[in-house]
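Final paragraph of the annual report: two paired records, presented back to back.
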Amino acid sequence: MLNFLFDSLREPLLADKAAWAIDQICSTCRKTLTVELEAFLRQYVVILSEHTIDAYVKEKVIGGIAAIIQALPSVESKIGPLSMLVQLTKADIDTCLASIQPEQTPEQVEATVDHATSALRCLHSLGKGLQVPDDVPINLEANYSEEAWFWRNGDGVLLQREVSHLLEETRSILGWHSEIIGALCDILRAGYKEHIPGLFVFKPAVTVHFVQACSLKTPELPYVLDTAQAMLGRQSQEVEAEMKQAAGAFMTFLLSVIDGMGGENLLSKWRLNLHTDNSRRRYLKRSANIFKWDLAGS
């Protein structure tokens, strides 16, 4: 069945539905399909080399393959296939960044941003696919020391650093586009709900650095601050001192934003528009939560 679906990815009229079906089947039957993982990866690489599939298809297929990787029995067995998918996506992003030239036309810039955004969405889909399914019980008393060591000190640390460096490089070059900032936030948030350490469960400092690198001119700034708050409520076990330090850094950044945009006058103006602007309502609500967390933790 899945072999037929992979072959269908080459047919423009069938590709989207086939990709959706691959994602659903892989997610639902992930444990059963682990023995087919290498074959699926080979098929995906061959299809990529033919340059016949679009961004949506890539996103769905990567998400499905990631779900199978999540079901592998050991953390060591995941690093190989994860590295392959990261490198494939990194190649797309590197091509986008290398193509940027000062003399580009607006149309060329838009095409570059669209291509980079699609690649980032593939990374986001990879992160979502690696999430433990909601119907799988989580042992809240376990410390997952083996997984934590692997991703913080073992073979996984280099791959995680490579991903975080890729996110930072993309932000530094294309961070003035709202689609890029939104996609970067989504990638960071993919690891926040995880109880178990993994590729996208970055240290709090990664989100702190991302937020601090933003400014008043950064698009999607309310979503950036919403992402900061989401990090403080993440499910994985973290050192309390790191979380308190992150909360303090976020509060300092928030104060600079409020001060730089007019302080109380700005907040008063926003209150007048809360009934029509959901992003601003979320901004104020999340900002208040950041303050409460920091004060409670101090």
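The closing record of the year follows.
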Amino acid sequence: MGCFKRSLAGPGYIILNTLRVMNIIALLAVVAASCVMLVKTFVVSKFFFFDACSHLITASLSIFLIISELPLFRGYYARNFPLLSLSSGFVALGFLMIVTGVSILGNLNKEATSQKSLGLSFWQIVISSGILVSILGVANVFASYIFRNRALGVTARMVRSYGAVAPHKVDDVLRSKSGRRRSFHLGRSDTLPSYHTSPKPETRMNISAPVNVDQGQFTKFKGSDEVQRPDIAHHPALYGERMV
């Protein structure tokens, strides 16, 4: 569904940055709604601990998503949460926002967060934040597919950050991503010495041919009186018992 065109890069830069501002506003509303429900839970509910943990997790998740939408800690998100980095679109962000909105709206069925308990003003804050963040979550998912280009490797986040020059920034983003991966995921050969020696291949020794010597130098000793065979009667083996 890659509907990305070069003519959409400029308008996409404006549209996606406008959507970013709306995301931050909606997530801030979720934080406010979670704080309101957290206070009311302590007052009304008897099992306030688990409800309080639920509201606290929702508020923390919203703050985490707000930081991911800001140009802060990009290296941290790229290393630990790549689905929220420049190399990915808004699909993960959209689904998290939808889950957050459903969680907010689901709390309205409880007595501690009902309209009677919260009051009309606070109840409107809670229901409006849940509806708004759910709608924007769906919008982020669609925007991620509309403004991407899979063939060029351009994501919607790149369009939002670089606009019309996003196709020229793909190599820089991928290079920085691979650089971080090499620096934080070193191989064993880069960190520890190897104590396993590989067997050496057997080498066949080349033995040279006999040296071409003068064979006549030994013939002069054959039948010569100067070289005589020793008398075997004087061999030391025959006198071994006498020596013992």
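The two ends are 107 Å apart (CA to CA). This concludes the annual technical report; the extension proposal builds directly on these records.
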